[in-house]
Every structure is written in C-alpha cells, then in structure tokens.
C-alpha cells in the first residue's frame, strides 16, 4: 500500500537513495527540552522504560531522568549525566556513544555487568548499555525501526548539548 498518493513522496519513503539522488543536505536541528521530551514520551510502550526525560545542560552534557523495570531488582529510578562521544561517520564509525559520567553507583555498575545479557534482550536492537557507556549502533537501530534504507545516506551524525537544548547535526548525501 502506498504511503501517499504522490509517487515522488512514496519513493522518498520506500527508496530514499533513488528519490534523493544528487542531494547533499546538512541539518542543524536544535531541540528544546520541552520538544525533546514530548518526542521521548511517544516511545513504544513495549520497552522496560517507564519514564524518560532529558535535561540538556551547557558544556556538552545532559542529564537523563530514567525510571525503568530492571531484571531481579524491579523498578529503578536514576538521574544519569551523559557526555556525547565522537560524531557518527559512515561507514567507518557507526556508533553514537554517550559516556556515563555520574548517576550510577558501584552497585548499579556491578548489577549492569552481571545482568548484561538480560539487559541486551530488553533493549531495542542497536542499543547497548554497559556500566560506562550508552551506545547506539545507528544502522541497526534504523533497521529495527524499519528505516534501514536511510543508513547509507548518512554521512555524519553528531549530538551536542547546550543549556536547555539538544543539538542534532545531520549530514545526508545521496549520489
């Protein structure tokens, strides 16, 4: 079934590389705290996440307020400070990484290490959580969400933070 009645728009969603041939698009998208958290509130219900709020701060850091159902221990709430890592560049560096700077104690880190396998089963494909990092394999996550055809178009993806805004820099190119 066609997404729209327009063959051009339908091709954009089903075969973006062909529909966007010759396109070189660079997007700088500042997301306010309010908009970002409204987007996060629309996440799928079948995840262990009960509450997820992001509070962007200056100095390229942001706080994540998280309540989740964890194996064995039940409901867990934490405020975690994250620092973004290097930008994603395809195909060499497909991982979007965030370093966990604070918010997890010794018990939390140990529990994550022990329950690593169970945690991986509950997270969407492409998302990895360790005791030190949150990593997102962008092509795998896009495939999980049904947008795998977009992955080859991504030249780079970077996430930064300033007071009250998360900054997304995206470069798409279709040759």
Query: Overall mean pLDDT score?
Result: 86
Uncertain parts:
none
Q: State which percent range the strand residues make up.
A: 35-45%
N/C terminus separation: 27 Å
* Strand elements, count: 10
Gyration radius (Cα, Å) is 18 Å
Helix content: 25-40%
**Pattern of helices and strands:** HHEHEEEEEHHEEHEE
Counted by DSSP, the helix tally is 6
Assign an overall shape.
Answer: globular
- For the largest sheet, list the strands in their spatial order: 2-3-4-6-8-7
The total domain count is 1
Structural class: alpha+beta
Give the biggest beta sheet: 6 strands, antiparallel
Walkthrough of the structure:
It is a single chain. The protein is an alpha+beta fold and 175 residues long. Helix content is 26%, strand content 44%. The chain contains six helices and ten strands. Strand 7 (127-129) and strand 8 (133-137) form a beta hairpin. The longest helix is centred in the N-terminal third of the chain and has 9 residues, at 33-41. 7% of the residues are buried. The mean pLDDT is 86.
Record the SSE blueprint.
Blueprint: H1 7-14, H2 16-19, E1 23-32, H3 33-41, E2 49-57, E3 61-70, E4 74-84, E5 88-89, E6 95-102, H4 106-114, H5 116-122, E7 127-129, E8 133-137, H6 138-145, E9 154-162, E10 165-174
Antiparallel strand pairs: 1-10, 2-3, 3-4, 4-6, 5-9, 6-8, 7-8, 9-10
Sum up the structure in keywords.
175 residues; alpha+beta; 6-stranded antiparallel beta sheet; globular
